Amino acid sequence: MSQIVSPSLLSADFANLQCDLDMINRSEAEWLHIDIMDGVFVPNLSFGPPVLQYVAKGCTKALDVHLMVVNPMNYLEAVKALGAKVMNIHYEACTHLHRAVTQIKDAGMMAGVTLNPSTPVMLLKDIIAELDLVLLMSVNPGFGGQKFIPHTVEKVKELRELIAATGSHALIEVDGGVNVETGKLLAEAGSDVLVAGNAVFKAENPEAVITALREL
Ligand code: DX5
Ligand code: ZN
Question: Do 2 and 189 form a contact (C-beta atoms < 8 A)?
Answer without folding.
Answer: no
